[in-house]
Automatic annotation (TrEMBL):
It comes from the Bacteria. Pfam families: ABC_sub_bind. This is ABC transporter substrate-binding protein. Keywords: Signal. Residues 1-19 form the signal peptide. It comes from Iodobacter arcticus.
Length: 295
């Protein structure tokens, strides 16, 4: 009888009485999104205990880490938070629905196979996209880049996100009088200098659209320097490129994305099923143009 009463009391206690244990699986280290995530959870009355698993952009290291460090202790976590498409896909394959997965900064979670259009398939997953809808990006960019008719899209063959973006971007770019051409980049940092010289040549008289691609993010300083030195205009789709002097970008705010991910956990704690929480987007993406906010 005492045990039953104790269980009932625990069930009726507010969520803030518990310290949620969260495994944080990151692809390229912590960003403002993770700080926003922590801050929002605390603000909303939860007490997160976060353990970070950082891949440092290494798939093999991430697979080993998930298998040897997260898997043996999975039962002790309440949630798994993942940042980026690669980390999210690998986390989902490991979890197999055993723990709630809250993803962040996944450009196209449906196209990447992380969530389904069928809600019944999303019982243990929900999250936040860093997508800013392409018509808005193109409309804003055209205001600052009125000349030229050719758009070049660097495509990393190892990144499914880039291919998805290319499929979507072609028709939208055409609506704004840009003819899209894809440009294959070899995602090998040993070849980066040669690849960037080739890009400078091939992108002359073009606008370059920089997609949400993990490899391109990892070489953002070098990539943007090469484009700017050659006088090549760029449209950047995510915040990671803005600090490196992108010409124009309409981007989701990382900190806002983290806050949205935290609110998903709060909704879930209050009884909303994850399958009933749609993918979240920054409601007020920022337009940054003319190299505003340079460091």
């Amino acid at each position: 009888m005492i045990r039953i009463l104790l269980c009932c009391c625990l069930w009726l206690m507010p969520a803030s009485a518990y310290a949620l244990k969260i495994a944080m699986v990151l692809w390229r280290g912590e960003t403002a999104a993770e700080q926003g995530f922590r801050d929002e959870l605390k603000k909303l009355g939860l007490k997160p205990e976060v353990t970070v698993f950082n891949a440092n952009q290494d798939r093999t290291a991430l697979a080993t880490m998930l298998r040897t460090k997260l898997e043996p202790h999975l039962a002790s976590y309440d949630y798994v938070y993942s940042f980026g498409t690669t980390a999210t896909l690998m986390s989902k394959r490991l979890l197999l629905g055993r723990k709630p997965l809250i993803f962040n900064a996944v450009y196209d979670p449906i196209g990447a196979g992380i969530v389904s259009v069928n809600k019944e398939d999303n019982k243990t997953v929900a999250g936040v996209s860093n997508m800013v809808f392409l018509p808005l990006q193109m409309s804003n960019a055209r205001k600052y880049l009125p000349k030229g008719s050719k758009m070049l899209l660097p495509v990393n063959p190892r990144e499914r996100n880039t291919q998805l973006i290319g499929e979507q971007l072609k028709s939208v770019a055409a609506d704004y009088q840009w003819a899209l051409e894809t440009w294959r980049i070899n995602p090998d940092k040993a070849l980066l200098k040669t690849e960037l010289l080739r890009l400078q040549q091939d992108a002359k008289e073009s606008v370059v659209f920089i997609p949400a691609d993990s490899y391109l993010i990892s070489v953002a300083p070098e990539l943007m320097r090469a484009l700017n030195e050659a006088g090549i205009a760029s449209i950047c789709s995510i915040e990671a490129f803005i600090l490196y002097h992108c010409t124009v970008g309409t981007v989701s705010d990382y900190r806002v994305q983290g806050m949205l991910a935290a609110r998903i956990i709060v909704m879930h704690q209050k009884g909303t099923a994850l399958q009933d929480i749609p993918v979240q987007y920054d409601p007020n993406p920022r337009l940054i143009a003319g190299n505003i906010n340079r460091p």
